[in-house]
Fold this sequence. Notes:
Number of helices: 10
Distance between the termini: 27 Å
Number of strands: 8
Largest sheet: 8 strands, mixed
CATH architecture: Alpha-Beta Barrel
Structural class: alpha/beta
CATH superfamily: Aldolase class I
Low-confidence stretches: none
Strand order of the largest sheet: 1-2-3-4-5-6-7-8
CATH class: Alpha Beta
Amino acid sequence: MNDSSEIKISDSWIMSFRGGKNIVDPERPYSWIVEKELSPSGSVEDVLTIFLTNRECPFHCLMCDLWKNTTDFTLSDGLISGQIEWVLNQAPAVKHIKLYNSGSFFDTGAIPLNEYERIAGLLKGFDTVIVESHPAFIGKKSLEFRDRIKTDLQVAIGLECVNINVIENLNKRMTLDDFTGSVSFLLDNDIFTRAFILLRPPFIMSERDGIFWAERSIDFAFDAGVECCVIIPVRGGNGIMEKLAEKGLFSPPGIKSLEKVLEYGIEKQAGRVFADIWDLKLFSKCDKCHAARTDRITGMNLTQRLLPDVKCTCDD
């Protein structure tokens, strides 16, 4: 890991490199999609993901660019549930829904507590509801929401990387004990968990180390009791990441590294392991095999089986 002692990481330092936010409408989510995902039962099913518009997360993680689609204020009661209702009125019928809000669902500054009842009413009929949260917000509100929706709840938590120096420098303000404590609390209360794991975050400069620490993070997550891991290759684009790249402290991973980590996770057979396939072109330097590798990763996501390697001249 390259030396980061020359920089002093803080909220103000990270935010000083930001550009402007995107224009968002408080009455509409900034996006929504329907994707296929392998369920815990082994069937491939459609999942609706709604990317809610709400107040920015109070934590300013080094690698995060989700703040671009947030507001600077808490939305009035009815607006968050209204966003969900707007999507449900036009989306196809599915059994599973993710409510991702660029932060923590249980942060009442983002999702007001008064919204829980109406949101729960809108979620009737879903088999699974998945939200995301920082450990700092996991507690009684999580149980209250679980009790209101009366269906299976899963909480996604950003484990990111189990390298102690890295997780401290990410400015996440979370320890590994915080993560395991939150997972244990949720499991004790019949709430499933999934972990977001970063492939090659800042301060991990080689592909080999990036793979190593992503694999160790998968090990840690499953040992803690999570049911699912999602591997996210780290990209630039938020201002500070470009500054770190200039200093030699960040370089994005290659798509082949993502394949290797996904293979490792699947071979563990400890739970579902997915690779984030959003904008994979950013991580591929070869136009000849990019599409084939993307198809391979997508196929392994949906089958949880290793598929034949992609052969290409770029391997020479």
